[in-house]
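User:
Hi there, any thoughts?
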Amino acid sequence: MDAGNATNFTRIGPNTTDIKAYITYPGWLTFWFIVMIFLCILGAFSNSLLFMAIVTSRKLRKGSGTLIAHSILIEAFLCVIGVPLIMASTYMPQFGWPSKTMCKWTMLLFYGPIFAGTWASVLIAINRFVAIFFPHVYSKLTTPPLLALVIALGWAVALASSVPMFFEAGGISVGATKPWYACGARQEKPGYLYNFLVTVGTTAPAVALGVIYVSIFTLVIIRALIFRRKIDTTDKAAVARNQRAQAMTQKRLKMARMLFVSYIWFTVCYMPAPVTASVAPVLYGTSPLVSLFLRMLLEIGYATSPVIYLTMNAEYRSAAKRVLYRILRLCRPSLLIRDDTIKIVTEYEMGKTPTNNGISA
């Protein structure tokens, strides 16, 4: 993500010939480009797999599953469209300058989904907070119309934060940004609109995420400590209530751990670029290798975020396995030879426990 002051901004034009980064670091740029291609392919596959796992599972696509599928779809779009556009605008100036129109669309298709994805993460966090601490109203807040409304509101904020860059409103200019002269946006004329838009699109939701996740983790830990108190073992009703409470607490602890890991991963991969661009714009705009690394870190986050769901949630793993098997069955139908194998797989896809040995649920 490009941000900074006007000193690191150059308007697109034929007289701009300062391409020292391409002369000094050609090998690093090629290495970065190849790695980014691999990460985009990996991200497209991993996010598409998780998205299909959610939408093909009746259980997973309810409630938070809808919001997670929406977030995953945004990251898949970035891996297929948004990030490759930034890659192209970073690599191509050594051969020919990108046009103003190309840079405008690159900014819209890059910033817009990033802003929408960040707010989508906030919606997931709010959903989990309600599910853990207000389960009695959770079903009322996760009806399809309400989920569609909050998703639409998230996109409204994202577009309101990115469309002004496309039209270069409020003194914002779109053009080539140092050190690689990739497409970027800058506050060229006096004003604060660009910083305000980036704050609304990334900084504000990132802070909200931190507050929500820390609150969830802290409150769940406190509840776990409370339910560990000693009870009268002769009171069977009290023992039963305590066992149910402990089971629910363990489930909430598991979810809190997954959310906490998600936020740590979000902080490590997604925040260094905007933070560096805001706090140290000179470093971001003059160090070619730092610029490449921060862009790569962003794509690493998009490519690997589905791994968190797949490694920390057995239901997502099972659904992903079913999707992979369906794909494999389409590619290699000869794998299904025996009738009992077909029966076991059919039961597995329906979410039932197979009646025969052969495929574990």
Residues 6-312 form a domain with the Rhopdopsin 7-helix transmembrane proteins fold (CATH 1.20.1070.10). The longest helix spans residues 236-270. The mean pLDDT is 81.
